[in-house]
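User: Show me an example of a complex going from sequences to structure tokens.

Assistant: Sure. Here are the input components:
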Amino acid sequence: MLSVAVDPGHPLVGAVLRSRGAVEAWDLVRHGAIADEAGPGRRTRRPEAWAGRARAVVGERLMERAAEAGARLVVPGDPEWPGRLDGLGDERPYALWVRGRGDLRNACLRAVAVVGSRSASAYGLHVASGLAHDLARDSWSVVSGGAFGVDAAAHRGCLGGGAATVAVLACGPDRLYPGGNGRLFEEVVEHGVIATEHGPGVRPTRHGFLVRNRVIAALAPGTVVVEAGLRSGALNTARHAQELSRTVMAVPGPVTSALSAGCHRLLRDWNAVCVTDAADVAEQLGAVGEELREGGGTVMAVDGLDPATRTVLEAVPAKKGVGPAEIATAAGVGMDEALRRLGLLAAGGFIERAASGWRVRPGTGMAKDRV
Amino acid sequence: MLSVAVDPGHPLVGAVLRSRGAVEAWDLVRHGAIADEAGPGRRTRRPEAWAGRARAVVGERLMERAAEAGARLVVPGDPEWPGRLDGLGDERPYALWVRGRGDLRNACLRAVAVVGSRSASAYGLHVASGLAHDLARDSWSVVSGGAFGVDAAAHRGCLGGGAATVAVLACGPDRLYPGGNGRLFEEVVEHGVIATEHGPGVRPTRHGFLVRNRVIAALAPGTVVVEAGLRSGALNTARHAQELSRTVMAVPGPVTSALSAGCHRLLRDWNAVCVTDAADVAEQLGAVGEELREGGGTVMAVDGLDPATRTVLEAVPAKKGVGPAEIATAAGVGMDEALRRLGLLAAGGFIERAASGWRVRPGTGMAKDRV
């Protein structure tokens, strides 16, 4: 709910969330009282706007719209929550709306952010897709922003290489932007993950893109800028990566191309690492997520599950997958809760996403019991 | 004479030169006794070969051939000797054979080495000539190796930009290699300097090119590699520059081009600075030779000259230049001595090279006295 009322990643809200928890934070936002929680130095006029928006939020309607869009809500502490986001401190997202068969946390365990110019050259598109493809063949997921140009080429290359790709958008999960990448987003939902801080119905804003970039940088241990002019948003993503002490890499290009000038500035002034192929990138990131290359996923014991999660697991079929609404009904829990438990079960390796929805993962003890 | 008998830049010879002087060193080489000067750890079998070659040298014939080729001999301590070469320690050249109207030391005061692949791409040639041109317009001389490809483009760009260029060759001054660059070498003689460690008659060898590269690196405070494959000799020059603690710079290129792979390796593994234009290069080298941008050259007082040099100066005409042989005759000194004194006078700003030879520099007190 915070995600539709409050500016994403606002440190004041982050601090209150950390100290008081989500329920109290929401209450403070609704009553316009959240600024009182901050010290005198952190006062801001935003809380008045937030309070107005928060009072207009109808939680049930929001969850309905998310369910219609096939989105689940992932909050800090959830099994699907990517731990690297915690590097953002009080600017950590309050929550992420997630779509797609992939598990966000799993996809980010061995991931690289690949970003660049929207108006990329043929060279930039070629390098982005080739790099992402080769990274995917080496079991690296590619995180990017779903934009035209380098972002789209990177997502496509990753999917072509057989790994889950993560598209972090700056709009609601039901308003995938830009529309021209609609077919790509369908593929990402099918084989990867779309994640956004913004709740259903939110349209993208210019500021939103910049704020979104910190999430891209935070989800991966390293960011590669493939092709970027001096004013490209990709440099903003690289800046966030640097602030997070993540590895910043740049692909060089012709010095005669203004579209590579941003990359060259990263190399010259920002101490970015010069990378020319997937092997260079992998070498920089070392043994990150190396354990995922064989088999993938960490399977936990069913005994370790809490009763509520076990109830949801028992509602998941063994062969043909079913949607979360059906599972929620079968388990006798709300949609919101069902989605969270399903995320946990997916992260734990108990279930997986099939074409038609969730099913128990073949080869696990659970599946055998139920055949 | 050492330059036709002994391997260039051999540290054993360099050490003996330093401790005993040129006359004794030459005597030791001729008698095959130079190895005795070294400690037991520095023994080498080369002195036998050197002695054989040294005994075959006829000094007068050598100087005649040099004079025919228009070459002068510059030795350490001469006014035309570039002080930066001393950074090579015992591997410093014993002497340099120099051709051209430019003054070697003056040309190197504000200089950049620009090197790269012989089999350069259109991109590499374009960048090399443009970079050298823009550097020349900013009063930077360009030092390179006179080879096809990037070297030739850099020399041409520098000449086009109006600065003296320095071509360091790996052959005798009378055997300019490669012959295909003959027209370029003529222009360099006219507007710049050709320098070589090798005496008249010496043909280039593969080893000679590598040894030559240390001189290119030593003559400038920084080396730029424009385009180089992984096995390019330009990386050898960059290695020398690094060993000399000079600034190593590399121009990036498309990662899809094997001809830029060496540059990218320099950026990634050798901590080379990424440069994309002349301004980047100038920024890296800071205030090197900044005082030369206005006016150029340091004019010394005639009173400061020793009598022998003053005698040579008096033999230099005021308007139409004449060749060194004529000056030597007029001054009543040997050709070798005349060339050395002329070099000193040129470095001191008293004389300059005109189309037909040396003349007194217009605007100096000397010229006025003699009009």
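The lines above are the inputs; the final block is the predicted structure for all two components together. The two ends of chain B are 39 Å apart (CA to CA).
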